[in-house]
Write a structure and sequence with these properties.
The complex is a heterodimer of chains A (143) and B (250). Chain A has 143 residues and is of the alpha+beta class. Chain A is built from four helices and six strands, in the order αααββββββα. Chain A is elongated and about 80 Å long. The chains are: A alpha+beta (143), B mainly alpha (250). Chains A and B meet through helix 1 and strand 6 of A and helix 3, helix 6 and helix 7 of B.
């Protein structure tokens, strides 16, 4: 490669790598602002603002979903499956993908009792795509 | 360039590029459209609904291919930017001009299909989530690549500015890719990794991979057709263009 081309190539590479490093350092410093939601341990430890609307995410704890006997009200627990769990109170229609054991993002405010008053509930879904009959087929395999 | 086969070296010349590539475009269009029809009909009608999401997951067969190539086309434009700045190859600028609108529409389709998918599954079409926002930035970058050419009247300076924008903007690509790993996002992590396991059941892979290949072929065809247009516009005063218009070289 001719010297002037090598020089230009190194300037271009420096531009890219220098820019990338700068941007990465910046976004990792701002990680808390870029994260879409707070995690259960942040909610439980009280590291979240209570004076404004926030988003919190976690797994819906199995067996925790309790619908009110009248109306649309529902209470459930969100957990990180390690040691942090908090309760969510929501009045409205849950998305169809909302299921026990699946990920959910709730939008609302944390009240003083540590209960999250949700105004919206969003369902997360994972990256696994399986047909419905697959589970049964796997179970019927005999050695 | 000496290490390339002679038919490839020939393509660096605008005239031979213009004449040689026409046959390819026809085949790429035919193959791409047929493949897209096969993959989409297969995905819509001949695979079962997903275990949790039901039928709404089928938009994945459009969303994933266009989102992949929205990013790959941007990387290719940035590489063309490097080629322009370092080697001053004329075809690099032709490529940048031809590929930018294609990338723009791929990104728009990725965002649009994602919004349609998000409504039944997440319960919202739009959230300020790292993956969605960085993809939106990609759309703005493509828009910048298209608009910059219009606002800088001097072609040489426009190409220089475009190359810089393309290379600096490429910083966004690894951030899009790893946004779902580095940050808490509503968007799920990747199902297909180049060097890893695929978390999509085998029966869904065939229509998905057919569509990924078809979108690639169609994208290549459209970019080549745009490049052909760009070459003839830029060389309008050359004798080979005149003789082509007069029908001698066809």
């Amino acid at each position: 490669m001719k010297p002037h081309r090598r020089r230009r190539l190194s300037i271009v590479l420096f531009l890219f790598i220098g820019g990338l490093t700068t941007v990465l350092i910046t976004i990792f410093a701002l990680k808390n602002y870029i994260n879409h939601y707070y995690l259960p341990d942040q909610i439980v430890s009280g590291d979240v603002p209570t004076e404004r609307t926030i988003r919190a995410g976690g797994m819906v704890k199995k067996g925790s979903v309790a619908h009110d006997s009248t109306g649309l009200g529902v209470t459930f627990d969100l957990t990180d499956r390690v040691n942090s769990t908090f309760s969510v109170r929501f009045e409205g229609i849950l998305p169809s993908l909302f299921r026990e054991g699946e990920g959910t993002v709730v939008v609302g405010r944390l009240n003083d009792d540590g209960v999250f008053n949700a105004t919206r509930v969003l369902a997360k879904h994972d990256e696994n795509y399986e047909p419905p009959e697959l589970k049964g087929m796997v179970e019927h395999v005999d050695p | 360039m000496k290490f390339l086969p002679s038919w490839m070296q020939r393509l660096a010349s605008p005239q031979y590029f213009f004449l040689d590539v026409k046959v390819w475009i026809v085949w790429l269009y035919v193959l791409g459209v047929v493949g897209l029809l096969v993959g989409s009909i297969w995905g819509l009608a001949f695979v079962p609904a997903e275990r949790l999401q039901g039928d709404s997951f089928r938009i994945m067969f459009v969303h994933v291919p266009v989102a992949i190539f929205a990013q790959i086309v941007y990387i290719s434009i940035a590489v063309a930017g490097v080629v322009h700045l370092v080697w001053k190859l004329k075809m690099a600028d032709v490529y940048m001009a031809a590929a930018a609108p294609v990338g723009f529409w791929l990104t728009a389709l990725a965002l649009g299909s994602g919004m349609i998918w998000g409504m039944p599954t997440w319960g919202t079409p739009w959230e300020w989530d790292a993956r969605i926002v960085t993809t939106f930035i990609l759309l703005i970058l493509y828009l910048g690549l298209i608009v910059l050419r219009q606002v800088i009247p001097n072609p040489a300076r426009a190409t220089f500015a475009l190359s810089i924008l393309a290379i600096v903007g490429a910083i966004n690509i690894p951030i899009i890719k790893y946004s779902v790993v580095w940050f808490e996002t509503l968007h799920q992590p990747a199902s297909i990794e180049l060097f890893g396991e695929i978390s999509i059941d085998a029966i869904y892979r065939f229509p998905l991979f057919t569509n990924i290949a078809s979108v690639f072929i169609l994208t290549a065809g459209i970019i080549l057709a745009n490049m052909r247009f760009e070459t003839i516009v830029r060389n309008a005063s050359k004798t080979w263009v005149r003789s082509w218009i007069q029908g001698r070289d066809r």
